[in-house]
Every structure is written in C-alpha cells, then in structure tokens.
Amino acid sequence: MNRFWIIVFSVFASGIVNGQIFHSPAKSVYLTGGAYSGQFTDPLSFTGNPAVLGSAKSFRMALSTERRWMLKDLDFSRLACSFSAGQGGMGFLFHYTGNSDYQETAMAMSYGKNLGRISLGIQFRYDQDHIPGYSTRSDGSAMLGILFHPVEKIYAGMAFSTSLFANTAYINPEKYAGNYDMGLGYEVSPMVFLSVQLEKEAGLPMNLTGCLDYRWSEQFYASAGVSSISGSPFIKAGWKKNQLTIEIFTAYHLVLGFTPGIVFFWERKNKS
After folding, report:
1. Is 222 exposed, middle or buried (0-12, 13-18, 19+ CB in 10 A)?
2. Are 59 and 81 in contact (CB under 8 A)?
3. What mean pLDDT value characterizes the chain?
4. Is residue 2 included in any domain, yes or no?
5. What is the pLDDT of residues 32-44, one digit of tens each?
6. Which of 29, 78, 45, 44 has its CA nearest to residue 232?
7. How far is Cα 52 from Cα 183, in angstroms, rounded to an integer?
8. What is the CATH number of the domain that holds 183?
9. How many CB atoms lie within 10 A of CB 268?
10. pLDDT tens digits along 44-81
11. C-alpha to C-alpha distances, 5 to 2, 10, 12, nearest whole angstrom
C-alpha cells in the first residue's frame, strides 16, 4: 500500500514541479571591494563592476587559481587583463573550472568610460558548460555598471547582469542567473580601505560582504572580510616587487572547509 501512494504522489508531483531554470556559474572566493575604489583596484576588479575600468591608466594582468574546499576536481582558474583606452579602459577575462567529466568555461569583454564624477561600464560574457557524451550548454549575458565618486574618499555604485540568450537544445533550458550588486567603498587613507557589497542572485538570498584592506607599505598589504550568505570569513595577503605582485588568499566555509588560492599580478609601469 505504501508503494502505491508513493507512485501516486510521484505522478502528481511530476506535473507541477519544474527543474532549475537558472544556472549559477562557478564563482571564485576571491572577493574584492576594489570595484568601488580608486586606489585599491586590481586587474580583477572589473569583474565585479565594469565601470571601474573608466579609471584604468596602465596595462595590468592577473592569473589566479584556487582549490575550492580542497577538492582537486573543483579547481578554479582565471586569467584577466585590463588597459586604458581613450577616456576609459577595456578588460578581458577567461575562466575555467572542472575536470575530465565536467567543465565550465567563460569569456568576457568589458569597457568602462570615465565621465568625471560618474563612470559607466558594460560587459558581455559567454559561458559554456560541457559534459562528455551530452550536448554543450551555452549562454550569453550582459552586465551594466555605474560608479559614483561624489566626494574625495567615497565611491558607490551598482551593477546589473541578465541573460541574453540560452541554448535551446533542452525543453526547459537553464538561463544565466540574473545578478544585482551594490557597493560602497571608503578610502580612509592611502593605507586603509573599507568596502561593503550587497549581492542578490536569482534563486539565492541576499549576500552581504564586508572587507578591510590595509597596506603597511608599497610592498606589503593584507585584507580580511566575511561573506554573510555562508558565514565564510576570508583573508588575503600580498607582496609586491617592482611590477610583480604575489598574493595568497583563503576562505573558510563552516561545513565544506577551506578554499586556498594564489594570484599573480603584473602591471606595466606608466612612463608618463
């Protein structure tokens, strides 16, 4: 009798329950408030808000890799570069995560323009998920960003991303999850920076991220913060020598454990 009711319930449930329609792409635990700053930016800042490219002044590159929750199959790598272009700047991003059974890749192109106290930015991104033996899922999305600089030490802005198209090979194709981001940065001094970011992704609760950056000198700096959605604290520490910067970071999840990573930054000095 119990088996009969299980079958009946399953038949009715299958008619009203839909599968997941939003696909949340893999994200790095490398969190930065540099998207809402003028002095504490890095080559990966534009991935949070492309409007920050409006202040790009030199060519910069970043290569990061991390092992999410100490699992080899969840290694996550990113390569990014940004450079000035007229009264603004451009940025390019490539990321990869996965193993021989499942891979996620993404490419993005961004542009930001400085309009004085306001900067605007736009980003176009292409994601692709591949499982051997199955058709490849692809998705295109766009992000619009705006950055305000009302007074000398304060930056504020927001970014919004949405899906442009999705692979129609499935009856109910997954789409890129819409994302809203708001941030506030306060440059207390040339050595201290405070940032707060609010992020809302479709299907997930609001996430609040707070971070404190501190520079001892031109060569050494560190950051510490916490992300509310998982209660995960994170720390970063970097060493700079000439044009090269090496930074290590880690985040801790109460259930899943540690995610360590390393980033290499390179910046071409502006001769002017």
Report:
1. middle
2. yes
3. 82
4. no
5. 778 898 888 888 9
6. 29
7. 12
8. 2.40.160.40
9. 11
10. 989 889 999 988 888 999 999 998 888 888 888 999 99
11. 5, 8, 11
Query: How far is it, in rounded angstroms, from Cα 236 to Cα 252?
Result: 12
Integer distance in angstroms from the first to the last C-alpha of the chain?
Answer: 82
Query: Domain residues for 112?
Result: 26-267
Question: How many domains would you assign to the chain?
Answer: 1
- Interatomic CA distance for residues 85 and 54, integer angstroms: 9
Provide the β-strand partners of residue 255.
none
User: Pick from 91, 101, 87: which is nearest to 122 by CA?
Assistant: 91
Residue 235 lies in a domain: yes
Q: Is residue 126 part of a domain?
A: yes
Of residues 34, 46, 114, the one with CA closest to residue 82 = 46
Task: Give residue 124's pLDDT.
Answer: 94
In a domain, 20, yes or no: no
Give the per-residue SS3 of the chain: CHHHHHHHHHHHHHHHCCCCCEECCCCCCCCCCHHHCCCCCCCCHHHCCHHHHHHCCCCEEEEEEEEHHHCHHHEEEEEEEEEEECCEEEEEEEEEEECCCCEEEEEEEEEEEECCCEEEEEEEEEEEEECCCCCCEEEEEEEEEEEEEEECCEEEEEEEEEEEEECCCCCCCCEECCEEEEEEEEECCCCEEEEEEEEEECCCCCEEEEEEEEECCCCEEEEEEEECCCCEEEEEEEEEECCEEEEEEEEEECCCEEEEEEEEEEECCCCC
The one-letter code for the residue type at 262 is I
Nearest one of 78, 88, 90 to 29, comparing CA atoms: 78
